Automatic annotation (TrEMBL):
PROSITE patterns, per the entry: HAMP, HIS_KIN
Species this chain originates from: Wansuia hejianensis
Pfam families in the record: HATPase_c, HisKA
Catalytic activity entry: ATP + protein L-histidine = ADP + protein N-phospho-L-histidine
Protein name: histidine kinase
One Gene Ontology CC term in the entry: plasma membrane
TM annotation in the entry: 7-30, 169-187
Amino acid sequence: MKLSKKLISSFSSLIIVSIIIISIISNTMINNRFENYLIKEQEDKFEEIYKVINDLYTNNNFKLDPMELKHYALAEDINIIIQDIDGNIQYNSSTAMGMMGNGMGMGNGHMGRHHSMGGRNISEGEYVEKSYPLSIDNTNVGYLIIGYIDNAYLTESAVLFKNTLWKSFIISGLITVLISFLVSIVLSKKLTIPLIKIRNTANEIQSGNLSAYSTIDTDVKEILELSSSLNYLGTTLAEQENIRKRYASDISHELRTPLTTLKSHIEAIMDGVWEPTKDHLSILMSEITRLSNLVDDLKDSFNAEEYNINLEKSKFNISLELKDILTSFIPLYHQKGYRITSSIEDNIEIFMDKDKFSQVINNLLSNSLNYLRDNGEVFVELKKVNNRLIISIEDNGIGIKKESLPLIFNRFYRVDTSRDKATGGTGLGLPIVKSIVEAHGGSISVESEYGKGTKFILKFPLISKN
């Protein structure tokens, strides 16, 4: 079943069931309250009748006018019977209508269901009687018996009110169901149309169109987030696909260059063009070394997660280690007319893989060396801030363009392709550095302004060995 139909069906069913339940409960409660109210009104009326007749009966020396009694009974639509203290009938509104003389009185205090009272056919209810004591100064002198139909309180007006109430519930329910059905249609379209667009975009991405983009117009936050997530997924997949293609091209190129050199040199030796001299073999060895280093870098790059397993951590003085590394680089920098300066806080100990740390610093210093200009300088700082170790390596080299900054940690990415190839770079150094840093629970970030220089910032947690 389609989502739109399911929403309409579910919403309408819920509304219909709710309306039926509410209508039944409301109608039952209102009718019960209304009937209780009518019964209470009837009882209050009987109390008033009793008080009036008690006063008339006792104040007139136990005598009542039969015709007045008759009219009173007709007006109130009841039967009035007066009995003396011994139970003998003194007055009867029914016999006052001509029934006493022929023996059809109510001396036994009962009346049939089909008795006509005041001209009203009472076959629609049971005839019942209610007795009240007639008294003078708390002395019982007789009884007032009021006969009435048990549902006499349900007058035509009351029945009309109840029927109207029930009809109003039915009409209101039908109108509500119709409105809810229309609302459910509008709501389902509002929800499903954006979802259909998102589904179509997902299908396009699945079929290979990674440039597909979902544009929807809705105020539903969850759907907007879903659309945004899908667009992000498509963009990420497109980027990954481009990276994958570039990886394949770069790997092919990087492997082809040393292999082509090796092949051409070996063919030249085999054809007798070259003699297998030490110089020629040295060239072959350098290409083999380059190829071996490339394979190692690829292995380290694509299996960087292994650093979490193979880290050989130990506690050491990182201040001394960093000074030693800088000392080893000073001659390389001086050969090109560059300088290394530093500000290293003394006696900082840390628990991490010493060799991997050296690999990180060596890579960053080598990068700076390759991209410095005349009067080039690198400044290295080591300090401890709030239980965190911070290392910064800042140079005044050529810098990195703003659009390249988010990409420098991607495999094979080169800021300057021609320059990197000239220096033998593979575009794998920084991804490996990032993997090592993160494997130690640290982070690496870069700040750079093109033409002015670059600054790498490393942060490590200061964790001591237990």
